[in-house]
Amino acid sequence: MERTFMMVKPDGVQRGLIGRIISRLEDKGFKLIAGKFMQISEAQAKRHYAEHEGKAFFDELVGFITSGPVFAMVWEGDDIVTLSRTLMGKTKVTEALPGTIRGDFAAHTPFNLIHGSDSPESAAREIANFFEEKELLTYNKTIADWI
Ligand code: RTP
Ligand code: MG
């Protein structure tokens, strides 16, 4: 079972989309194992987006992600890193297809509502940046074995 880190960004919170975004992830059958509504610190934001350090939009990106509360989550599922990014849609809102979260709700890059890890390695690093091990819950969620 794979894990991923996902986050409703400040624009998603401001627009009242936390519930609808979580519903889409639940509808897909993913399993929520952690979640918290929080304000990200600047240091945490810089660690989270370390791969983009030095790029022209880095300061703007850190400013955006720390501009208000986010809803941070950890989800589990088979191939969840790839599947969740398919559900999210493309980074640029002009390329995000209808039916995806960004395609249906986002209209201005870089305000694309949701973050999802881009590899299992990124997921492990990002989860550790936002959650303590004890916050990741273990429980049974019944999913029919023919899915
Ligand atoms: P994310 O990390 O937030 O899930 O998004 P992503 O993988 O689809 O995109 P990534 O390339 O990692 O970029 C991270 C976030 O930076 C903002 N961005 N701004 N101004 C720009 O050219 C630009 N490019 C990217 C977006 O908010 C993007 O989600
Ligand atoms: Mg990314």
List its traits.
147 residues, 38% helix, four-stranded antiparallel β-sheet, single chain, Alpha-Beta Plaits, binds ribavirin triphosphate, binds magnesium ion, 7 helices
How would you characterize the overall build of this protein?
The chain has 147 residues and is α+β, with helices and mostly antiparallel strands. The chain has a single domain, classed as Nucleoside diphosphate kinase-like domain (Alpha-Beta Plaits, 2-Layer Sandwich). The protein is built from seven helices and four strands. Strands 2-3-1-4 form a four-stranded antiparallel beta sheet. The longest helix has 11 residues. The two termini are 14 Å apart. The model has no long low-confidence stretch (mean pLDDT 96). It binds ribavirin triphosphate (RTP) and magnesium ion.
Q: Count the strands?
A: 4
Helix content: 25-40%
Label the structural class.
Answer: alpha+beta
Order of helices and strands: EHHEHHEHHEH
Number of structural domains:
1
- What's the CATH architecture name? 2-Layer Sandwich
Q: Report mean pLDDT, rounded to a whole number.
A: 96
Low-confidence stretches are none
Number of alpha- plus pi-helical segments: 7
> In one word, what is the shape?
globular
Sheet bearing the most strands, described? 4 strands, antiparallel
What is this entry, summarized?
By secondary structure, the chain is of the alpha+beta class. Helices cover 38% and strands 18% of the residues.
What's the arrangement of secondary structure elements?
Blueprint lengths: L1 E7 L1 H5 L3 H11 L2 E8 L3 H7 L9 H8 L4 E8 L2 H9 L12 H5 L8 E3 L3 H11 L17
Antiparallel strand pairs: 1-3, 1-4, 2-3
The structure holds ribavirin triphosphate and magnesium ion.
GO molecular function: ATP binding; metal ion binding; nucleoside diphosphate kinase activity
InterPro entries: NDK-like_dom, NDK-like_dom_sf, Nucleoside_diP_kinase, Nucleoside_diP_kinase_AS
GO biological process, one term: UTP biosynthetic process
